[in-house]
Design brief:
Elements lengths: L10 H4 L4 E4 L5 H11 L3 E4 L9 E4 H9 L10 H4 L13 H11 L3 E5 L5 E6 H9 L2
Parallel strand pairs: 1-2
Antiparallel strand pairs: 2-3, 4-5
Keywords: CBS domain
InterPro entries: CBS_dom (IPR000644), CBS_dom_sf (IPR046342), Diverse_CBS-Domain (IPR051257)
Protein name: CBS domain-containing protein
Length: 135
């Protein structure tokens, strides 16, 4: 099967799976260890129930909200520093619109979420650019 043309590429075509999922009560120290272990760029914080929303912790959140202000990573839980609710993208979203969304809201990466509200990947600027330029 031929790959989609540059103008038809979607988030699902270029997303990656370098993320981990956990609950918000994990400490930042444990979250960092998970990121190292799985070479992850993001931590997705699970919904507590079906009425809750997903959370997101990036390395930049840890650097700005823990490291820079000299907080103890052993005493800070992920829920204290996560972004919630998050901006996510649909798998079928065209990568041009993903890039516009990132620019409009100052995002560096976003989860790709299916119709069942499950994270199926992560999209970021490097994947957008590489996906756009690859034939």
């Amino acid at each position: 099967m031929a790959s989609p043309s540059l103008t038809e590429r979607t988030a699902q075509d270029v997303m990656h799976s370098r993320y981990v999922t956990t609950d918000g009560f994990m400490t930042v120290t444990d979250g960092i260890e998970l990121m190292r272990q799985y070479d992850a760029t993001a931590i997705i914080v699970d919904r507590r129930d079906e009425k809750d929303e997903l959370g997101l912790v990036l390395a930049s959140d840890i650097a700005k909200k823990v490291l820079a202000v000299n907080r103890s990573a052993d005493r800070v839980s992920l829920y204290e520093i996560m972004s919630k609710p998050i901006i996510s993208v649909r798998p079928e979203m065209n990568i041009r619109y993903c890039a516009r969304l990132f620019a409009q809201f100052g995002l560096s990466q976003a989860p790709v979420v299916d119709a069942k509200h499950s994270v199926i990947g992560i999209i970021d600027y490097p994947r957008l650019v590489i996906g756009w330029e690859t034939n």
